[in-house]
Structures are given as structure tokens and as C-alpha cells.
Hints:
Blueprint: E1 2-3, E2 6-8, H1 10-18, E3 23-29, H2 35-47, E4 51-54, H3 56-62, E5 70-74, H4 82-91, E6 97-101, H5 107-119, E7 124-128, H6 137-142, E8 152-155, H7 158-167, E9 171-175, E10 192-196, H8 205-208, E11 213-215, H9 228-243
Parallel strand pairs: 3-4, 6-7, 6-10, 7-8, 9-10, 9-11
Antiparallel strand pairs: 1-2, 2-5, 3-5
Helix pairs in contact: 1-2, 5-9
Amino acid sequence: MKDDTTIFGIRAVIEAINSGETIDKVFIQKGLQGNLFAELDQLIRKENINASYVPVEKLNRITRKNHQGVIAHISPISYWNIEELVASTFESGKTPLFLLLDQLSDVRNFGAIIRTAECTGVSGIIVQKKGGAPVNGDTVKTSAGAIFKIPICKVDHIKDAMFYMQSSGIKVIAATEKADDTIYKVDLKDPCAIIMGSEGKGISPSVLKLVDEQAKLPILGEIQSLNVSVACGAFLYEAVRQRS
């Protein structure tokens, strides 16, 4: 009942969760009832798994097979704990360079960012459990396999990661066009974490208020924004340049 990273059927999803599979997201048909569903619902809440209640039409678009109202995507990777990630980075002797992604939703942008992050020696990527791009086959393909070589961590909210970074002596820098200074005026040689926002809205205003510094890329043409994966690459390679 498993097709790449997708499983379907209530019992199959329950067994996957109980066996320790890393579930990226569960889609559940609206109005689903019954004892078996109640068992699944309780398990999802207990394990804090990302779940969406959707019309049956959406489930039918994902698979034509008998899904019983439940489809789950299994992550092809295991996620790191943020405390372990930060501790192991400092213990390695390398100057930490983390990447925080605030509600990035496009899987291909996510994959491209992962690839660039691995190439630039990023210590780890932190994403939010809900609202962000899933880790699926498209992410793996676009990352050119880099997703298996760089630690990725999921947190309840990106603010949780920010607070932990700051308390650990890691400066948090927002990549935003609202900044006064360009990236070339910001010191990236010390331990730091760069936040990239979503494709449409950028970094959330509530997140932006909590950063240590803001920086932007100079835009010389008429189009006033860059694709987020391209912008991320420019930021990361500036960090590489400063640290070389």
C-alpha cells in the first residue's frame, strides 16, 4: 500500500505512525467518522503530526485507489532536534551558519535552496512543521540529493528556533527588501542564522520584529524582487566570501 512516499488507508497510516515512520503530512477526508478514525485522530494529536481536513475530491486527485478517506506522505528523511543540531555544530569547531525558512511553500524552491545550502556549507536548515513546503519526491529531485547530506530540523514555530538561536549566541539576520542596509554591510563571519521568507509574502511581520539585523540585496533593474532560491544563494555566497 506504499507508493514512493505516499501511503493510504486508515489502518496503514496508523501502522506507519506506530512503527516510527516520519510522517510529513496527513490528508483526512472531512466528516470522516468511526472507531478506527478516532484512533488515528488521537494518534495524530499525540504525535503532533501535520494534518489537513480536505474534501474527498482532493484525496481522489492524489490517488485513485481505495484511500478510505486518509492519505499520508512519509518523509524520505529523518528530522533533527534543534538542540542537538546547534550543539553538534558548535562541537564540530565550525562557525555556525544556519538557514531558517519562514513558510516557504514551493517544493522546487525548497529543493533548490537545500542544494545551494549544502554547497555553501550551511550547518542546518530549520523549517516550521505546518504551512511550509513538504519534503517529497520533487524536493529530493530538485535538491540533487543534497537533502540527504544536510541536517533539516522542524520546529512548531520559526520563532521557537529564533529564540533558541539567539540564546545560544547565534545572530539572526532577516533577508528582506525592507532593510536599510545591503547584505554587503552586514557581518556574516560570526555565528549566524539567515531567515528567508515565503514566495508571496516574505518574512512574517511578527518574525521580522524579533531579528537582530535586516539585510537586502541591491536591485538594479525594474523588477523589484528575486526568486527566493536565487536570493538565498546570493546571501549564502556572501557569507562564504566573508568567511574565506
